[in-house]
Amino acid sequence: MIISEKNRREISKYLFQEGVCFAKKDFNLAKHPEIDVPNLQVIKLMQSFKSKEYVRETFAWMHYYWYLTNEGIEFLRTYLNLPSEIVPATLKKQARPAGRPFGGPPGDRPRGPGRFDGERRFGGDRDGYRAGPRAPGGDFGDKGGAPADYRPTYGGGSSGPRTGFGRGAGSYGGLRRRKSLGRASLLKAESMVSNGSKDSSSTSATAAKGGGGSGGKIKGVPTHGGRYVQYNVHGNLFEVSSKYVPPIRPIGRGAYGIVCAAVNSETQEEVAIKKIGNAFDNRIDAKRTLREIKLLRHMDHENVIAIRDIIRPPKKEAFNDVYIVYELMDTDLHQIIRSEQALTDDHCQYFLYQLLRGLRYVHSANVLHRDLKPSNLLLNANCDLKIGDFGLARTTSETDFMTEYVVTRWYRAPELLLNCSEYTAAIDIWSVGCILGEIMTREPLFPGKDYVHQLRLITELIGSPDDASLGFLRSDNARRYVRQLPQFRKQNFSMRFPNMSSGAVDLLEKMLVFDPNKRITVDDALCHPYLSPLHDINDEPICSAPFHFDFEHPSCTEEHIKELIWREAVKFNPDTQH
């Protein structure tokens, strides 16, 4: 839908002024109750803002509600050219009008929390293939991953608790052999159980290994002649093909849906099954689902998470929920970093090598990940690392990069912070540098509160860029903005990171470079002396063919996306009984 600039500004002004926008669930309503524009245009613009993380959406019985986020405040302040002293009503310390406590009609208070501050809380697709904690009684938490008090213990050994799990029947070839020589000690299976926990069944490893606590197992009811089994997972319908044998164990819940662990009776592999309910109600979210399915179907690499199945629905005409089956992982790097167990330089080296090895493959497929961060790097007990969550990925040749939210702020490259529309694979390398520093320091390198603070933290460490380092910026305004920022000298990295080896420090400096054209590439990073004990060009495969996003054209409707995902399910399950 084309929205005129006048109407776009009117809607944006209202959103910024109130801090929250609402719209009636009526696409045919000629005029919005409070803005002199069609109701549908408000809905469409807010859906666009939602995809960029400018607003957070909640629902009521008859209305949509969109709460302005910190990202949205920054964007609208720039778009509307507003001074910093003007703030949304939701930030003002004053009583709200009694008639409209949430910006909408009286008596229609939206369910769920209001706006949130700070770094986004976005579960994303990563929750679909990662085991997660269960609370006492078997209930699953808000997201996957190890619990907050998770304390892994690293010890010697040459095999993890699930040999043969994942691609290659438990063997990477050269990579696995090198690891068995002791480059990185392994994560013991028993260390995946939270120390001192009253309910050890609540840990991710127990779920992954097939254990369960009270309330964690749910009985199923056969349907469709026994070809499917239906479960009630804490009030949510969960219907999967019968080859995924009961019991189904709930292990997590992400922004996109419920996640359960199960065993594929045909392969005896433990898997994570993610249900995306009402997957085609929102075109943007539906496209993200299709994008990840297509991408992961195209890729085949030990350091990239694998899709095992798209469960074919019993009837095409009743196809509303998507069930994606992933290989199951124990935890993620974010949870390991948060634990109290010290990480050695060997661990850092091995995690980094696997990340770069997988990223080389991804980039060779003509794809940028665009959302690399510790929580999107999945791990299992033998230290295998896999890159996950490709819902924001894009091809390197696209020109409309800025149409969606890109990279969590703390891991965002300077060119993204400065709205550079033509960015490259260097944005992923910057994120890798942030992750490398975080592994060793156990805290984010650049925990910015907003764009301005983010840039300040970056320049405080790597120094303010000189004019030669701003050549990648085509915008004169962006260059002027950078020049007027406070000036800082580059810190001594060896002093700033005293616990890092000299090799790691040198590689980090080459990754955290302001000018993307001077940032080290993934190939050069793999060849860096720091990774020489692991590097083997003959064991670092590239993708056999580039990936194309041909299916993502602007006119693609929800029905067309549904048809494409249906076809993917049929490829996995061509059985004519359906």
Automatic annotation (TrEMBL):
Region (Disordered): 94-177, 191-223
Keywords, alphabetical: ATP-binding, Cytoplasm, Kinase, Magnesium, Nucleotide-binding, Phosphoprotein, Ribonucleoprotein, Ribosomal protein, Serine/threonine-protein kinase, Transferase
Binding residues for ATP: 275
Extent of Gly residues compositional bias: 154-173, 209-218
Name this protein carries in UniProt: Mitogen-activated protein kinase
Bias-annotated ranges (Low complexity): 194-208
Stored Pfam families: Pkinase, S10_plectin
Keyword Transferase: yes
Requisite cofactors: Mg(2+)
Biased composition (Basic and acidic residues): 108-129
Occurrences of domain Protein kinase (ranges): 245-531
Gene3D superfamilies in the record: Phosphorylase Kinase, domain 1 (3.30.200.20), Transferase(Phosphotransferase) domain 1 (1.10.510.10), Winged helix-like DNA-binding domain superfamily/Winged helix DNA-binding domain (1.10.10.10)
EC id: 2.7.11.24
Chief location category: cytoplasm
Subcellular location: Cytoplasm
Record's catalysed reaction(s): L-threonyl-[protein] + ATP = O-phospho-L-threonyl-[protein] + ADP + H(+); L-seryl-[protein] + ATP = O-phospho-L-seryl-[protein] + ADP + H(+)
Family annotation (PANTHER family): MITOGEN-ACTIVATED PROTEIN KINASE
Domain of life: Eukaryota
Family recorded in the similarity comment: Belongs to the protein kinase superfamily. Ser/Thr protein kinase family. MAP kinase subfamily. Belongs to the eukaryotic ribosomal protein eS10 family.
